Amino acid sequence: MRISALALGLLLLLGFAPSASAKGPTWHVDYEKAAALAKKEGKPILADFTGSDWCGWCIKLEKEVFGTPEFKRWAKEKVVLLELDFPRSKPQSPRIKAQNRRLAKKHKVRGYPTILFLDANGKELGRTGYQRGGPSVWTRQADELLARAKERSPKAEPLGAWTTSYAEARARAKASGKPILANFSGSDWCGWCIRLSHEVFDTPEFERWAREKVVLLELDFPRSKPQSPELEAQNERLMRNHRVRGFPTILL
């Protein structure tokens, strides 16, 4: 028996004990922290409105789905988990109680369990609840729900994309806290503009830099390319305001 105990001790020291990752992803209880993580990781929030110590269907959902290894693997890859609990016996801080009531009111939650999928800004992408069939059925339905939400959402321009709208550039700059890099250019006739685009703006190195540092605004003065009257007027106005005399001129 002494040898067995010693062997077990050595195995534990060598790392054969269950790892922390085996416990699965963390269920957050603070909405702001969950939203920040969702934004950082580019994932939706799975918000579980539950009565964890009294709601029979909530307890059943936890046992049949949320507590399973299959769900934990899915959740670690796909979502940020947020538990919004309404217990009868479990202790809960006044701040979390108030937060959960506010979110339930905002999203018009009428019963438990209600599962909402939210984007990082709190916009509802879809909702579900208890589903019979275990984790494979539940996660498949969740994947379908998120896929439909993605199809409905407007296609976002890739980070670092050039915009031609000054208003749009200002909105992006305000949201991101970045300056605007405004490129006054004659894209289809100005030799130095074409060279600058080829040697700098079109390179992967510049694109990586721009995604992190600036909002890109193209203010073009073409000779052959079609351009709307509104865009022509905007670009002429900005050229006059900033006293641009030649191309390319780059303003920050």
Give a verbal description of the structure:
By secondary structure, the chain is an alpha/beta fold. Helix content is 48%, strand content 15%. Strands 1-3-2-4-5 form a five-stranded mixed sheet, with helices on both faces. The chain has a three-stranded mixed sheet with strand order 7-6-8, sandwiched between helices. About 7% of the residues have low confidence.
Layout of SSEs?
Elements: H1 2-13, E1 27-28, H2 31-41, E2 45-50, H3 56-66, H4 69-78, E3 80-85, H5 94-106, E4 114-118, E5 124-128, H6 134-152, H7 166-176, E6 180-185, H8 191-201, H9 204-213, E7 215-220, H10 229-241, E8 249-251
Parallel strand pairs: 1-3, 2-3, 6-7
Antiparallel strand pairs: 2-4, 4-5, 6-8
Short précis:
With 252 residues, this protein is α/β, with parallel strands linked by helices. It has helices at residues 2-13, 31-41, 56-66, 69-78, 94-106, 134-152, 166-176, 191-201, 204-213, 229-241; strands at 27-28, 45-50, 80-85, 114-118, 124-128, 180-185, 215-220, 249-251. It has a 5-stranded mixed β-sheet, sandwiched between helices.
* Alpha carbon gyration radius: 27 Å
- Strand and helix order: HEHEHHEHEEHHEHHEHE
Helix content: 40-55%
Report the end-to-end length measured between terminal Cα atoms.
Answer: 75 Å
Low-confidence stretches: 6-22
Described by strand count, sense and barrel closure, the largest sheet is:
5 strands, mixed
